[in-house]
Amino acid sequence: MINFDNAATTYPKPLSVRRAVDDAIRKYGGNAGRGGHSLAMRTSEALYSARETVADFFGAVPENVVFTMNCTYALNMAIQGIMCDGGHIIISSMEHNSVARPVTALAMKKNVTLSVAEVFPEDNLTIESFRRLIRSDTRAVVCTLAGNVTGQILPYREIAGICRENNICFIADGAQLCGIREVKLSDGINILCTAGHKGLYGITGTGLLVTDGKYPIKPVIQGGTGSNSMSLLQPDILPDSLESGTPNVIGAMSVKAGIEFIRKTGMQKIEQHENLLCRHFISLLEKNRDFVVYREPAAEYVPIVSFNIKDIPSERTAAYLAEKGFGLRAGFHCSALAHASLGTKDGTVRFAPSVFNSISETDRLFAELRQHRTITV
Amino acid sequence: MMICIAEMPSYTYAVKGKKLLSSKNIRCSIIRNEKTSSGSCGYMLNIDENCEKALSLLDKSGISYKKITDGGAL
Fold first, then answer.
1. Which of A35, A41, A227 minimises the CB distance to B10?
2. Per-residue pLDDT tens digits for A106-157
3. B32 with A36: Cβ contact below 8 A
4. B16 contacts in A (CB within 8 Å)?
């Protein structure tokens, strides 16, 4: 199987990540932050070291790094934790359902109102569409840093600037950008939510919420934290307030190893390699009028290419490719808003390479696509 | 040399405090005691030397604690 579905989760994982997972299972089998015996203490120290690595990577302090199950959980915690007292919230028209569904659920309650800012290929138009929607009761803006359907990078630093000017909490979904480009809280992000298992090369079941602490996040889940055990109230200090229950130490150690892999390889090199594959793939598609590529000249993209073969539903193309040993995701990619904006009634096929893919694999994929076109139409 | 034990609000802050003090060459270790006051996690910093300076460094770094034991002069 040749995997070009790395926007969903990266596979394969680096050898160093696989080793870190094995190491964690053998050495860090205690419960972090609970108990004073050597196994618990060793496990606690390991978890803290993972917190430090993440904090350093995103320009935060270790206690403001919260390990979550995935990016969706992090986004739900941030959105619900900031909007619990109601108010106005703005999201972009490129948001994944991990943002669109929780804000829609909140908007169905009477005390939260929702606006959707249209995203354009031109950054200045996108920035203006956010600015126009700001109101006196706007409490949060939630914006993907790069869309998961086309990979378009949004002008998030400028949108963050608007939030800062208006004292609005800026929540960023970094699932498609983190690990590809440097993302720091100093970009103006108050709460960064991201996956640990995509561009950061950790294992599935890992996500991160990283905050600058400016906007307190009310916990939506309460429980044991290892701290203040005789109180029936949830602690109000981070990360405990948002980390109820036994943490995924093995997952956290995989994220740590993933970040170290990125640093060792070089983030710029990773992006350059994946972009090279995307440009190569696009050049092949564009030689043939049978293919539609969902990219705009004015926009900037992460290494994702959404495309279709004319007159063939995306799911049919992906099913054919799966039979031939290629993993690509078709359909709507859990992104109702983005596909509605694109007008893609049958969805798209998404090409998302990782650092482990090659030009020759891309050539073989294209050969299969041409064959599919020939035998289907 | 004064020693003391500082009760920490969570394990995360205990490690953060230990790293801070170690970076300033102040010897300390994390110990566990279940019989701690309300608001603690049971993890404490056992500061082996220069207690006054150590607590001042924790204060300056915004690391909250409760000083529960003044160990006196060694």
1. A227
2. 999 879 999 999 999 999 999 999 999 999 999 999 999 999 999 999 999 9
3. yes
4. 48, 62-63
- This complex has an ipTM of 0.85
Write out the E strands in B23-63: 28-32, 43-47
Tell me the pLDDT tens digit for each residue of A280-334: 999 999 999 999 999 999 999 999 999 999 999 999 999 999 999 999 999 999 9
Q: How far apart are the first and last CA of chain A?
A: 26
Confidence of residue B71 (pLDDT cuts 50, 70, 90): low
Instruction: Mark which residues 93-112 of A lie under 8 Å from B by CB.
Output: none
* Under 8 Å between Cβ of B40 and B10: no
Opening angle at CA A311, ends A308 and A315, nearest 5: 55
Between chains, do A227 and B40 touch, taking CB under 8 Å as contact?
A: yes
Strand A348-351 versus strand A207-211 pairing type: unpaired
Tell me what the mean pLDDT of segment B2-31 comes to: 92
Mutate to test the interface with B, among A47, A228, A232 (most CBs of B within 10 A): A228
DSSP three-state, residue B36? coil
CB A192 within 8 A of CB A79: no
DSSP category for residue A220: S
* Chain B contact probe: residue of A237, A243, A244 with most B CBs at under 10 A: A237
Q: What is the pLDDT of residues A86-99, one digit of tens each?
A: 999 999 999 999 99
Separation in Å, CA of B50 to nearest CA in chain A: 24
* A321 within 8 A of A372, measured Cβ to Cβ: yes
Q: How far is CA A167 from CA A111, A188, A274, A356, B4, in A?
A: 20, 11, 37, 42, 42
Contact list, B17 vs chain A (CB under 8 Å): none
Specify the DSSP class assigned to residue A301: B
Closest Cα in chain B, distance from residue A99 (Å): 29
Measured CA distances, A196 to A97, A177, A248 (Å): 18, 12, 12
**Bridge partners of residue A114, in order along the sequence:** A89
Rounded CA separation A26/A133 (Å): 52
Handedness of CA A71, A72, A74, A79 (dihedral sign): positive
